[in-house]
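Let's inspect one such protein example.
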Amino acid sequence: MLFTKHFGMKKIIYTLLLLFLITPILKASDMPAYEIKVRIQGLKDTLMYLANYYGGYTVKADSAMIDKKGWAVFKGVKPLPCGVYMTVLGNTKIFEFAVNEQFFSLETDTGFNVKKMKIKNSPENELFIGYQTGSAELTSNIYKFQSQIKEAEKDPTKKSLITSLRDSIRIYSEKELGLRKNIIKNHPTSMTAKIMRSLEDIVSPATPLGKDGKPIDSNFQFNYYRDHYFDNIDFTCDCLIRCPIYHNKLKYFFDKLVAMHPDSIVFWSYIIIDKTKPSKELFKYTLNYLINTYAASNYVCMDAIPVNLILKYYNYKDCFWVDSAEIYRSRTRMELLYPTLCNHFAPNIMMHDSLLEKKIVEVVKSDTIPDSRSNKIYSLMQKHGTTNLYDVKSPYTILMFWDPDCSHCKAEMPKIKSLYDKMKGKGVEVFAVCVETDYNKWVDYINKENLKWINVIDIYNISEFRKYYDINSTPVILLLDKDKKILAKKLDGTTLEEFLSIELKLKQ
């Protein structure tokens, strides 16, 4: 009896101890890292999405069913990164709100009116949605005044009304600006304040005057505006990447304030990317945006931008989102492309004319011993001589890699031939490298099309021209100056003629 009681007591104690040990683990694993409750009074049994901005995009963050009382509960085991989020029904955005805290609730009606929004446990949204409410009312009045001005401008007798309406727009705009300034002043460390500050535009000071009373620099105000354009962006704040403002500013800066020239874009890219380094998210987005934007550009020579950016910034320390193998592949690829960027001297290549190549083909067919064959080819090249790119003495050289079987080459070749016939007397030469491995096909095409420029080939790739010029497709057309510096690349017959026409006119 005593044994039974003792055994039973031990079992109870053991069970209680086990429950005591397991229960905290179960609670910890079930505890959400965020829980955002959204209620739309009058809605039920509907799927609602939670989405957020990411640069110039919106991405899905979560989804939840709206219950019978109108509540949708979003929760997950990882905290939501801070930024501007939105509720979405179907494909329609309902309202925006801020995520800085991880546990709060928002409640409104089916009119989705932010003025009626009930906010619990989110001081950040008291600021953010409070600003939305005040700003929406002021902006609505501004739009109304603008509409009235358009109507009044049809009547010449309503000039005084137009003046009055413009004064009203100015007053309401100042009030809207005041809302932002109050948040920045009274809540400077809040995410909303950092967003409001990023909206502030740069005001250039007056242009300094010299002793003669004339402006020292006519571009002073523009340069000041450009140089200080990002002053109001907090580059320590990851939250700004989940807000459309930064993307829009970045795009505007490079589209409107930076010269459309590779050197200028690379210069300013370095400056802006270095500014973003305190924020991993802003750094990642800015670097990827600039690489992808200019890699897809149709403008001449813009490949210099992704090449330079990858060589400078793709490293194991900073690019946390790229694995080591991809970093190695990307850097190796860019190192290969770097020598043939615009304004670099084109790599010299020693090519073979038709007679030399014919003899080399005969040697390869007749001699199967590698060392003997190599010695004979070397001897032929020494005796006959190769055709070197740098031996071409011409103010302009069109360096073209082509293939007689390539449909694009066949489309461009008549344009290049017509251009050559017009401009060969003006200092333009063509150095045409055939990438075909069939000697007879090459010779037949030259004779058929009567191509009387410099025609060369290297069937066995002795010169390794494919590696130096990254020949993966044809045609590849580059324009070189008298020193064989690359002026332009990725050209077709039309753009080549336009470019040469400009060059020749400038020279004259």
Q: What stands out?
A: Residues 1-7, 9-26 have pLDDT under 50 and may be disordered.
